[in-house]
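Students often ask why inverse folding is considered easier than folding. One informal answer: many sequences map to the same fold, so there is more than one right answer. In these notes we will look at a single instance of the problem. The structure comes first.
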């Protein structure tokens, strides 16, 4: 196994034991980038000289006894909405062509303090306003979409061109591409990870979280990210938590909610079968399956769009009026549509969210977590605009991909996407675990318990 193939936890263990140096790991990742990046296009920029310098610094610090923890010397990618001092934050848009960040974002500063090494900035759907990331190819089939908006971050992890990455998630933008590329994606509880220095799409729905190869890796990154930051008005004050799950697989006594509505409606048969098999595996590990009714489902799409569209338009108000031609057509149309939404619609969406949060809180008193598909279909062909379901219903690709992930953004509950197999075409399938607010530890425990019963996952085949 080459160093770039190592999951974060394994690489960290090898570095701590002096069996692998940060320089060897960095060189391996850079060689991998040279090999696969030309046809995957996961990165906006790769800072090769900085990587090698930082790896040498990490190696010297560790040799001198200044080991900072499991992220020390680990190569990471950051979605290009996340500020790093002196670097461009392009948001994959011509609007940001001349931008340079003046300071680190909160999350970049925390990862730097933990010793992680920045490989580069990863592509996003322009300003995170989309679910496909069209400039990036799927790591398993370059003729298919990467998913979005954190497509570059997910592809980099799946292909071995970063050991871990960060993405952002406003309606599913961590979990959707994670599922479509066969990696782990975690959207934490709203407010758990600070967003200062991260370009906003919709401030009341935005989250920052890790994309990794294993559930344990996600726990390690979350531990470095979580914690209050007064510069983010939504930031929560919480005690320090060791999110790393134990090694056991016993889930006896855990109540796992299985939706009887919504989450398995208009879902591809192979996706449903894979998720149902994974649910059966959770039961075999001791979990008790409990049927649950997802509340207020008829309002989910309207609430998501009713919140996101006007907030996104407000953020872009100035440049939308002065330089609309710099936006891609799909994003510009959405931003212009937001100018036509009455204030009353936004207020009604806010009221609906309040009611939805209350109903979800009641539902989550009955179970410890909920299990469902992450997305209803695997990665579609590049350029495909719609999905036709078995009953003849036609749905837009972006609408389909956001449909099962957006409830966690509206309610703010944590959600973890874990790979659970592949379809007949070899494309990855993801299972989503949703928990109570600040219930990340339970999701990570269940995700790892399932993961430990499965064969070790390999890097994406197209890479």
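Output (designed amino acids):
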């Amino acid at each position: 196994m080459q160093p770039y193939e190592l999951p974060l936890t394994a690489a960290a263990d090898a570095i701590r034991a002096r069996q692998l140096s940060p320089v060897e790991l960095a060189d391996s990742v850079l060689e991998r980038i040279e090999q696969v990046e030309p046809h995957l296009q996961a990165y906006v920029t790769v800072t090769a000289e900085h990587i090698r310098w930082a790896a040498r610094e990490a190696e010297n610090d560790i040799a001198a006894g200044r080991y900072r923890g499991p992220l020390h010397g680990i190569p990471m990618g950051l979605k290009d909405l996340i500020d790093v001092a002196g670097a461009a934050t392009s948001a994959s848009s011509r609007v940001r062509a001349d931008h340079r960040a003046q300071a680190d974002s909160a999350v970049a500063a925390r990862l730097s303090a933990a010793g992680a090494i920045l490989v580069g900035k990863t592509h996003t759907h322009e300003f995170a306003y989309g679910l496909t990331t069209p400039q990036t190819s799927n790591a398993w089939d370059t003729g298919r979409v990467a998913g979005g908006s954190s497509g570059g971050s997910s592809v980099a992890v799946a292909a071995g061109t970063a050991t871990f990455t960060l993405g952002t998630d406003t309606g599913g933008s961590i979990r959707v591409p994670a599922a479509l590329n066969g990696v782990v994606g975690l959207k934490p509880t709203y407010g758990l990870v600070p967003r200062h220095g991260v370009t906003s799409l919709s401030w009341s729905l935005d989250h920052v979280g890790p994309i990794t190869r294993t559930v344990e890796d996600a726990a390690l990154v979350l531990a470095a990210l979580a914690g209050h930051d007064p510069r983010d008005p939504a930031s929560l004050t919480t005690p320090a938590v060791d999110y790393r799950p134990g090694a056991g697989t016993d889930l006896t006594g855990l109540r796992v909610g299985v939706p009887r509505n919504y989450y398995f409606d208009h879902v591809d048969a192979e996706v449903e079968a894979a998720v149902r098999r994974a649910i059966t595996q959770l039961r075999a590990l001791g979990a008790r399956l409990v049927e649950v009714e997802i509340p207020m489902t008829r309002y989910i799409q309207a609430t998501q769009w009713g919140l996101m569209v006007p907030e996104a338009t407000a953020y872009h108000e100035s440049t939308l009026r002065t330089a609309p031609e710099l936006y891609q057509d799909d994003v510009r149309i959405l931003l212009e549509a937001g100018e036509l939404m009455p204030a009353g619609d936004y207020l009604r969406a806010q009221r609906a969210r309040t009611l939805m949060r209350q109903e979800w809180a009641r539902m989550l008193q009955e179970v410890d977590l909920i299990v469902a598909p992450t997305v209803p279909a695997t990665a579609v062909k590049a350029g495909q605009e719609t999905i036709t379901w078995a009953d003849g219903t036609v749905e837009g690709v972006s609408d389909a991909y956001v449909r099962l992930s957006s409830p966690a953004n509206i309610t703010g509950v944590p959600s973890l996407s874990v790979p659970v197999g592949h379809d007949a075409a070899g494309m990855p399938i993801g299972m989503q675990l949703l928990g109570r607010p600040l219930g990340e530890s339970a999701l990570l425990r269940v995700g790892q318990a399932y993961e430990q019963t499965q064969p070790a996952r390999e890097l994406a085949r197209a890479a």
